[in-house]
Give the backbone structure.
Amino acid sequence: MKFQDYTFCNEIKQNLEELGYKKPTDIQYKAIPSILQGEDVLAIAQTGTGKTAAFVIPIIEILHNRTRKSRQPHIQCVIMEPTRELVIQTARVCNTLAKNTTIKTLGLFGGVEQDPQIAVLTKGVSILVATPGRLFDLISQGYVSLQQLKILVVDEADHMLDLGFIEDIKQLLRHIPRYRQTLFFSATITPQIKDLAYSLVHKPVRIQISPKDPVSKNVDHYVAFIEMDDKRFFLEQFIKEHQENKILIFVRTKVRAERVKAAMARVQIHTETIHGDKPQKERNHIMKEFAAGTIQILIATDISARGIDIPNIDYVINYDMPEDAENYVHRIGRTGRGTKRGSSISFCSESEKELLTHIEEFISKKITVIDIDKQIYKQTILQSIDTNTPLQEILKEIEYIDSKRKKKK
Ligand code: AMP
């Protein structure tokens, strides 16, 4: 079935066409009719499946039909998101799909001045996309009333729980009507998520996309066994061999992110980092540049990059193996989005092999091993040092590697 065959208003159809969305994705095909009928939905679907549009399209259709042009809009829908990046991204999807309709969307998040947000709120807003903190601030100051809320969406619920937002979601229930439609989305399902979901939804339609295969089918997975201290040489080589590609590199901590950036800078590779220590403004700027392709290589921590929708990421590199198998799913979900293909390559050291086993169990499949011949392994390290580097730098590098190796012994 094509989008043009649905009974959406013409404005939505036109917006879908402009976006180049012709047919619904699996989750959209399953979720849209139920949402339009006013049913609660409990969906297990990872990002990259088109889940945002799966709830945004029917919400706009419902609200557009309810809102008269002459009346000032009031808040009828709240979409809860775990991070500012996701608020911005989801609000953008709402605005794009609601173009020329009566629906106004506002993205609310902390870390920025509240006055401009209040100014938009006073003019009237139909959909609020928000992180819990700023939403509650504005409710307590009387700028936001959710008394007339019709639809509540909890997006990325598993991520919400990871960030400790469970109490916030429960608190939200005190501010919204009991009779409402609730749409609950999570990439993974655990007993805790189930409990939370069933405390919010009423007789939901359950939708699960590829239950045994939580990762997008558009992603090819590889793992290469590389020792911790050698990873930077292999990253350098990979980047140099893939100069045309957009690459997202995951590391475990903020400090590691800066270290890998510095290691790449030493071999004249420009990268950027995104992590919790960077001011929001800078993070937004970097994400914009990465989306536009002016930045080709981004080094990120799990939290900072979760859920972000950047077009055309060709490779996700797990420079550090994720400690939590669920994070693997989130990381590699950054590539192979929509109808695009992508690849994920994990650099796995001896000490990380156990994490690899957990990941393989979690995604119920073996990850293809890239065999690196011993000779090639050695050459990769040596090559990194000899390219156009002054002698002093080479000696410094050799000393550095030697001292690391001695320390290890
Ligand atoms: P999401 O899972 O919501 O983060 O969406 C993943 C990507 O799929 C986004 O880049 C969307 O623009 C794209 N997308 C969503 N729905 C469709 C569709 N029906 N056809 C093509 N691309 C889509």
Q: What stands out?
A: The chain has two domains: 3-208, 219-372. The pocket of adenosine monophosphate is lined by residues 21, 24-25, 28, 47-53, 309, 337-339 (CB under 6 Å).
